[in-house]
Amino acid sequence: MQELEVDVAVIGAGTAGLGAYRAARTHGKRAVIIESGPYGTTCARVGCMPSKLLIAAAEAAHMLEHAAGFGVHAGATRIDGAAVMARVRSERDRFVGFVLEGVDAIPAEDKLRGHARFTSPHTLQIDEHTLVRFQTAVIATGSRPFVPTELHNVGPNVIVNDDVFEWTDLPKSVAVIGTGVIGLELGQALSRLGVRVTMYARGGSVAQLTDPVVRETAMRVLSEEMDIRFQHLPLRATQHGDEIELTMRTTAGDEVTERYQYVLCASGRLPNVDMLGLECTGLELSPRGIPLFDPRTMQCGASHIFIAGDANAERPVLPEASDHGRIAGDNAGRYPDVRPGLRRAPLTIAFTEPNVVALGRSYRELSGEGKPAFAVGQVSFHNQGRSRVMLQNRGLLRVYGEYRTGKFLGAEMIAPRGENLGHLLAWAYQCRLTVKEMLDMPFYHPVIEEGVRTALRDLQANIDKGVPPEPPGPDRTPGI
Question: 38 with 26, same domain?
Fold first, then answer.
């Protein structure tokens, strides 16, 4: 077994790992990057980019189907599933190629292939071939799709999102388990491309939404187009030839059995930290087995080990993984001089239509026990001018503000062009603007952003009214 002495060991060559490696190198340190799976990042291979390619094809089909609403009548729409998937795979491979070019630029002596596990706080064993002694380490091992226990070892037609992008043609039917971002994006795209899709949710969650009013609107809007069945739990599944017989149980106890060509498990992802030998590091772990860390520095406790990207499950999206990696790599490279890094405004987007977006502080966070009251403003897009022009007038935006200072606190929405509205509001949040300052900004006409102005005006009016009085409690007068 060969032995290496390095300053920084980075475990994982995804978005966070590559960022950590490069940041550590800027401090003149000897760093290695260790990877057991394929190079190319989750985003490029099986995440952000191939899913958006599928969504783009679905949007084209949807526009043709609804052109008559504008008085434009196209011929019969024909969806060539093989051609759709050929473009998805071809462009996916192109995006992966860009990542591989960056990996190829890393010196060969800095790249180690194999599964890494800690054997002590300062050593890693890579398979059976290499022992790495390090001064600092960055855990950037990413995550993997979660498959419910009831669907384990059923057969080849129970799949995860990674498998979708290897299809050479579109299937006839798919059951999607989960109404998170991944499930909703893929489910709606496949449905618009002519696939019979049924979506199942354990509860009533919709993507990243925590505001009950926005969530209820999203449930209604998305259910108008798709077959979404909330409050359904997977009970069992059996492979029958090229189909899966799936039985779901409702919270009322009823059982529903249907057959699909595929069952797509899209009910979340698990951090890849369970096979790292963390018990040898002395790190304190959360109940989920993730090292406790400081989100400003990515440092695990007061140790020399840092954690970045999906592995820490804080905000499992690519921009956050990139920032995590940079911060962790910087601090690993200049340890023990550990410094807080730039954390940007929280922003998550589901590229459904309408888009589902959350930014800043969530409704759940603001509503936590012991938190001060906050003001809410909202706008429906049903009668919003530009939205009606485009026949995209569905959705709701809710914005939050602080009573005392008038500061903008965050927003949740299901909205047309929500990806653009989300960026606008996330910038305002990061700049710590007040609602009045936001209303002083220019709003052109006619644009969807005018809906943002309507919501902000509603929010400012509610801030001006002040904190509403608490409802009276029960009369506890003796004898009552």
Answer: yes
Q: Is 141 annotated as a binding residue?
A: yes
Domain's final residue, options 267, 293, 311: 267
Total domains, the chain: 3
Q: By residue range, what is the domain housing residue 394?
A: 347-465
One-letter-per-residue 3-state SS of the chain: CEEEEEEEEEECCCHHHHHHHHHHHCCCCCEEEEECCCCCCHHHHHCHHHHHHHHHHHHHHHHHHCHHHHCCCCCCCCCCHHHHHHHHHHHHHHHHHHHHHHHHCCCHHHEEECCEEEEECCEEEECCCEEEEEEEEEECCCEEECCCHHHCCCCCCEEEHHHHCCCCCCCCEEEEECCCHHHHHHHHHHHHCCCEEEEECCCCCCCCCCCHHHHHHHHHHHHCCCEEECCEEEEEEEEECCEEEEEEEECCCCEEEEEECEEEECCCEEECCCCCCHHHCCCCECCCCCECECCCCCEECCCCEEECHHHHCCCCCHHHHHHHHHHHHHHHHHCCCCCCCCCCCCEEEECCCCEEEEEECCHHHHCCCCCCCEEEEEEECCCCHHHHHCCCCCCEEEEEEECCCCEEEEEEEEECCHHHHHHHHHHHHHCCCEHHHHHCCCCCCCCCHHHHHHHHHHHHHHHHHCCCCCCCCCCCCCCC
Whether residue 143 is annotated as binding a ligand: the answer is yes
Q: Which residues does the annotation mark as catalytic?
A: 445
Instruction: Output the domain CATH number for residue 128.
Output: 3.50.50.60
Q: Do residues 9 and 68 share a domain?
A: yes
Q: Is 181 annotated as a binding residue?
A: yes
Annotated ligand binding at 268? The verdict is yes
185 assigned ligand-binding residue? yes
Mean pLDDT in consecutive groups of 10 residues from the start of the chain, 480 residues: 96 97 98 94 89 97 94 93 97 93 95 98 97 98 96 96 96 97 97 98 94 98 96 96 96 94 95 97 97 98 98 94 98 98 97 98 96 97 96 97 98 98 98 98 97 98 92 60
Is 204 assigned to a binding site?
no
Examine the domain organization and report whether 158 and 228 are in the same domain: yes
